[in-house]
Amino acid sequence: MTAFTDKTILMDEDGIRRALTRIAHEIVEKNKGMEDLVLVGIRTRGVPLAERIAGEIERIEGVRPPVGILDITLYRDDLSLLSYQPVVRATQIPVDIQGKTIVLTDDVLFTGRTIRAALDALIDMGRPYIIQLAVLVDRGHRELPIRADYVGKNVPTSARESVSVKLCELDAVDQVMLREVVEG
Prior knowledge:
Shape: globular
Helix content: 25-40%
Strand order of the largest sheet: 3-2-4-5-6
Number of strands: 8
Number of helices: 4
Radius of gyration: 16 Å
Structural class: alpha/beta
Oligomer: single chain
Order of helices and strands: EHEHEEHEEEHE
């Protein structure tokens, strides 16, 4: 069985808030405003991050962009390898994504496989004008040619390390922790 030991706190509540504020400013600047902008959070922790970024954009621009929820369960390339019965939850995107600027949001960018699945799911819903990627943490180790447009923090990691994101909406605390894999 694989276990983890906590190693280092990479971001605390203030660090996460500052990173998301910066990402919101970068999104507005890169897109020259927020016309046709839609934030889409990948379940689970991408959703509250998208909501927080939308709140920051509303504070900056005075208008809140729509926020959607994307469930990628059926698009995963490891679905046949899972020993448990996966739980599929609803995808909820409040607007038609055709021709829109989509900012796909997730907590950690690692191999790129989650983002590939999310891109497949989005494309099945329509043809956005552009899809951009915002992540709280980019830890490297890509297996696919995917990169984020907006990154809260770049954290080079080893194969024996893991990045754990906790958000108060789900975990009662805001924290990003570097953890080490301990074989046991």
